[in-house]
C-alpha cells in the first residue's frame, strides 16, 4: 500500500553568484514514499509556481544516475542519506513522516553557486581538457581487440571509468579536494596501453590544473570514497600519486 509523508524542507536560496544566500522553509504534504527526491522537488516547485513564487533552481538531466548533474547536499550528506546512489536515485522512503530535511548546494570555492542549488562545475571540465584524454593514434577497433590486457587491469580501468564527474567527492571533503575525481580519470587511462603513451604529461597537467583551480589538498580522510555514488576507490589516489611522482622525476 502506498504510504505518504509530510515534510518540512529547509532549502538554500541564492539569487546569483554574488548575492547573499539564505535558508527558506517550505512544507510539502502527501508525498508518496515511492517517489524520488527530485519528484518531490518538482512537486514543491509546482506548489511555489501556483503561489506565484519563484521555483527553486536545481540541476538534473538523466535522472538515472548517469550524467552526474544532480548535485544536492541533503541532511549534511552529498546525494543524501543512502549508499552508492546519486540524488536522482534517492527515494522518499528514506525519510520519516514529519522530518525536517535540509537541502544545500555543493560547498566548494572551485564550484561557485550559480543560483539556489545549482553550482558551476566547469572546473572539472577544465581539468579534463588539461589532459584527461588520449590524443595519439590508437588504431581502429580491430587493433583495440588485438591488444591483450590483463583482466585485473581491465577491471580496475572500468571501475575508474565509472566516475560520472558529479563532484560529491569534493563536496564531502573538508579540504574540497578533487583528488578522487582526478585519480579516477588518470587511472582509467594509465591502466590501459592506449593511455600509457601520454601518462606522464597527463598526470602532471591534470594535477597542475586541479591546484590552479583552487581545489584543496588531500589529507586522506577517506570521506570522498564514502560519499562517492559510484564507489570509486581511494586506491586510485595512490595510483595518481605514483603516476605523478614517476612523471616528475623522469624529466
Ligand atoms: S569520484 Fe565519485 S564522487 Fe567524485 S566525481 Fe567521480 S563519481 Fe562523483
Ligand atoms: S540527474 Fe543524472 S545522475 Fe542524477
UniProtKB/TrEMBL annotation:
- One annotated GO biological process: aerobic respiration
* Residue span(s) of domain 4Fe-4S ferredoxin-type: 154-184
Q: Name one GO molecular function term.
A: 2 iron, 2 sulfur cluster binding
Cofactor(s) the protein needs: [2Fe-2S] cluster; [3Fe-4S] cluster
Q: What InterPro entries has UniProt attached to this entry?
A: 2Fe-2S_ferredoxin-like_sf (IPR036010), 2Fe2S_fd_BS (IPR006058), 4Fe4S_Fe-S-bd (IPR017896), Beta-grasp_dom_sf (IPR012675), Helical_ferredxn (IPR009051), SDH/FRD_Iron-Sulfur (IPR050573), Succ_DH/fum_Rdtase_N (IPR025192)
Taxonomic superkingdom? Bacteria
Protein name per its UniProtKB record = Succinate dehydrogenase / fumarate reductase iron-sulfur subunit
Amino acid at each position: 500500500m502506498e504510504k505518504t509523508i509530510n515534510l518540512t524542507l529547509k532549502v538554500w536560496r541564492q539569487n546569483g553568484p554574488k548575492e547573499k544566500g539564505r535558508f527558506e522553509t517550505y512544507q510539502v504534504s502527501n508525498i508518496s514514499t515511492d517517489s524520488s527526491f527530485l519528484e518531490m522537488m518538482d512537486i514543491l516547485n509546482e506548489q511555489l509556481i501556483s503561489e506565484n513564487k519563484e521555483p527553486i533552481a536545481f540541476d538534473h538531466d538523466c535522472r538515472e544516475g548517469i550524467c552526474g548533474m544532480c548535485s544536492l547536499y541533503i541532511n549534511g550528506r552529498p546525494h543524501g542519506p543512502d549508499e552508492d546512489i546519486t540524488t536522482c536515485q534517492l527515494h522518499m522512503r528514506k525519510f520519516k513522516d514529519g522530518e525536517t530535511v535540509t537541502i544545500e548546494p555543493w560547498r566548494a570555492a572551485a564550484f561557485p553557486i550559480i543560483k539556489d542549488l545549482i553550482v558551476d562545475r566547469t572546473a572539472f571540465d577544465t581539468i579534463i581538457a588539461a589532459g584527461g584524454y588520449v590524443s595519439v593514434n590508437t588504431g581502429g577497433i580491430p587493433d583495440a581487440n588485438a591488444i591483450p590486457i590483463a583482466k585485473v587491469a581491465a577491471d580496475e580501468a572500468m571501475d575508474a571509468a565509472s566516475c560520472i564527474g558529479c563532484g560529491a567527492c569534493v563536496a564531502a571533503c573538508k579540504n574540497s579536494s578533487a583528488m578522487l575525481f582526478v585519480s579516477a580519470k588518470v587511472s582509467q587511462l594509465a591502466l590501459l596501453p592506449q593511455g600509457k603513451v601520454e601518462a606522464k604529461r597527463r598526470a602532471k597537467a591534470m594535477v597542475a590544473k586541479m591546484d590552479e583551480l583552487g581545489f584543496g589538498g588531500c589529507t586522506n580522510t577517506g570521506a570522498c570514497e564514502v560519499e562517492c555514488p559510484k564507489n570509486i576507490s581511494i586506491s586510485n589516489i595512490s595510483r595518481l600519486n605514483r603516476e605523478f611522482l614517476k612523471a616528475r622525476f623522469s624529466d
